[in-house]
């Protein structure tokens, strides 16, 4: 429920990945928030610490993101969103297979015929799908994720979000914020005023961020390979995306092979999932293994592919899934009473490999929880002002 308050609430957000940017935009679209983002890394940066599973599949949140991105795919080419034909293959058909929840959202969903399956594959499905290419990490590359049936070229999409935020009056500052308390103390505007609301969207950084120290967070290393196919094959390759599950589990655990084209003529091949591995350098052995698995699945497209580079990134995994919460807190009782000492503290992090896929839904959910705290914030601040006079 939107608050009835007429005043504007000041918000400081930590983190400019897809979660932080999506949360900022969701607040600004409400029109009664002033938003400032603080972040060490910004869109266009190349850092292993900047990447927007537990197999976190939150249907409500994924659906909200899908609806938003489908609209962008249809209406705004600057957002970098496009449609593809997706394929999911299982080497061993899962027992008691049930059609995935997203069947109701995608177009052209069907089970593949036996003659349509690659060698060594028992079962498969196809549907109109899409991808998300997230800003990388090491090796001047970009990671790619599938979002039901929409393809988002993430460097382009992150830049789009940034531009939408700035156009609505939001501000983004490059700064390293050392703690949750420092985020509350950081100036919100040039007059030095402080935030009413702080939101932590620091991803993997939440593990060691003072004031959070969420030891449920852990890294999951992923390595991918960026390739190009001969020009004659690109018209066919740009419409093909797939995931192949080696162990035959319901939606894939263990070794997963995937192919996702990007709108710039490159194709992402993957991948790996290595918990607690911080190794930044790409493994040549892993690169060869990924390419070999892809060629075995789709030799007509990838037998003559040219390797451009290999890339490594860290997914911000969390035991127990995504943390979305908001509460009124006084961060430091030793500093006495006063408005600036009592704030709404919110969190939106721990999305593993599905940060883009759930970004709009998670942003809407954290904004909903923040708005649920505003009456309490005003009451507690009024009480603190009374206490300060005693």
From TrEMBL:
Keyword Flavoprotein carried by entry: yes
Cofactor: FAD
Binding-site residues, D-dopa: 258, 315, 353
GO MF term set: D-amino-acid oxidase activity; FAD binding
UniProt cross-references to SUPFAM superfamilies, sorted A to Z: FAD-linked reductases, C-terminal domain, Nucleotide-binding domain
Any GO CC annotation of this UniProt entry: cytoplasm
Occurrences of domain FAD dependent oxidoreductase (ranges): 11-368
Alphabetical UniProt keywords: FAD, Flavoprotein, Oxidoreductase
BP terms from Gene Ontology: D-amino acid catabolic process
Family to which this protein belongs: Belongs to the DAMOX/DASOX family.
Protein name per its UniProtKB record: FAD dependent oxidoreductase domain-containing protein
